[in-house]
Design a protein that fits this description.
alpha/beta; Rossmann fold; 7-stranded parallel sheet
C-alpha cells in the first residue's frame, strides 16, 4: 500500500532529473511506490519509463524532454508542467557517463558542453524553477545526487570530479540559505550501486532499489550523506586517506603496479603499521613526483615493529 506520509510532509509531486541513471530511476520508482506523482525530465524521451511507473504504481506521471543547452527554451515545458502542482520533491541525478572517458584532453568540445549542460546547467536551472514554489509553501525537499568521490580530485576523471564537487557544494550552500524556510536540501553522495535486477556486488555495492530505500529514509534527517551506512564507512575511509594514496588509486594501472608490489608482500599487519607511519611522516599534499623516494622508504625496516 502507498505510504502517504512523505506526500503530507513534503508535497504530492516529485520532479526527477536523470531518470536514465541507475539511482535516478530507482528514486522515481520508490517515490511512486510511496504514492508520490512523478514528473520525469530528461534530454531524451522518457515516455516509456513514465508509462511503466504509472502502470506499476498507479500514480500520475509526466515525461518531459528538455535540452538545457537551449537556455530559456528548455525551461518552458518544465514551467508548464509545474503549474498548479504541489511540488514536494526535486531530485537531480548526476550523469556519470564521463567516468568512462580516457582523459580530459580526449573529450571533444561537444562532449564537454553536453556534460556541462546535463550536470551543471540542468541541476542549477531546475532548482531555480522548483525552489520558489517550495519557499512559498515553506516545505519541500531538494536532493542532489553526486558521488562519494566528490571529496577527492580524481585524475583521468577531471570533469566528472569537478561536477561532483559543484553539486555537493551547491547543495550545502542551499541548505544554509533555505533550511530555515522549511526547505530540506540534501547532498546525496553514493558510491557504487548495481542496477535493479542485476546481481549485487556484496554489501558495499547494493542493488539500486535497496540503496534508494535506505537513502529516502534519511530525508529530513541528514543534509549531507551517502544514504547507505556501508557507503558511509567508505566515505570516512576516504576522508582519512592521504590524497596521494587516493591519487595513486586513480592513476593508470601501469603506475600503480610499480608501487603495489612493494607493499603487498609485507602482510596485512605490517602494511597497517607502515601506512600508519607514513601518514604521520608525510604531509597530506605529498608529491607523487617523489615516487622513487616513497618506494625507497617502503623498503626500510624502520617500520617493522
Amino acid at each position: 500500500m502507498p505510504n502517504k506520509r512523505l506526500g503530507h510532509r513534503f508535497g504530492e509531486w516529485a520532479v526527477i532529473y536523470g531518470a536514465s541513471e541507475t539511482i535516478g530511476k530507482a528514486y522515481a520508482e520508490e517515490l511512486a511506490r510511496q504514492g508520490i506523482c512523478i514528473i520525469l525530465v530528461s534530454q531524451e524521451s522518457v515516455s516509456d519509463t513514465a508509462q511503466a511507473i504509472s502502470a506499476t504504481h498507479r500514480v500520475d506521471t509526466i515525461g518531459i524532454v528538455a535540452d538545457f543547452s537551449q537556455g530559456h527554451v528548455a525551461c518552458k515545458p518544465v514551467k508548464d508542467a509545474l503549474r498548479d502542482k504541489d511540488i514536494g520533491f526535486l531530485v537531480n541525478c548526476l550523469d556519470e557517463s564521463l567516468g568512462n572517458s580516457p582523459n580530459f584532453t580526449g573529450l571533444s568540445e561537444d562532449q564537454l558542453w553536453n556534460e556541462i549542460n546535463r550536470n551543471i546547467a540542468a541541476t542549477t536551472l531546475l532548482t531555480h524553477l522548483v525552489l520558489p514554489g517550495m519557499v512559498e509553501k515553506r516545505r519541500g525537499a531538494v536532493v542532489n545526487i553526486s558521488s562519494g568521490a566528490c571529496y577527492r580530485p580524481s585524475p583521468n576523471k577531471a570533469a566528472l570530479s569537478a561536477f561532483t564537487a559543484y553539486v555537493d557544494n551547491f547543495s550545502r550552500a542551499l541548505h544554509h540559505e533555505y533550511g530555515h524556510q522549511g526547505i530540506f536540501v540534501q547532498s546525496l553522495m553514493p558510491f557504487q550501486v548495481s542496477p535493479e535486477g542485476a546481481s549485487a556486488g556484496g554489501w558495499l555495492k547494493p542493488q539500486s532499489d535497496v540503496y534508494v530505500r535506505h537513502a529516502i529514509s534519511t530525508l529530513g534527517i541528514s543534509h549531507r550523506t551517502t544514504g547507505y551506512w556501508p557507503h558511509t564507512l567508505q566515505f570516512r575511509l576516504l576522508q582519512s586517506m592521504p590524497e596521494w594514496i587516493w591519487v595513486l588509486r586513480c592513476l593508470p594501472g601501469a603506475v600503480r603496479t610499480l608501487c603495489i608490489p612493494l607493499v603487498t608482500p609485507l602482510g596485512p599487519s605490517s602494511i597497517k603499521k607502515k601506512i600508519f607511519f607514513i601518514r604521520f611522516t608525510f604531509p597530506l599534499d605529498y608529491s607523487i613526483q617523489k615516487d622513487f623516494q616513497l618506494r625507497s622508504f617502503l623498503g626500510l625496516s624502520v617500520c617493522q615493529r
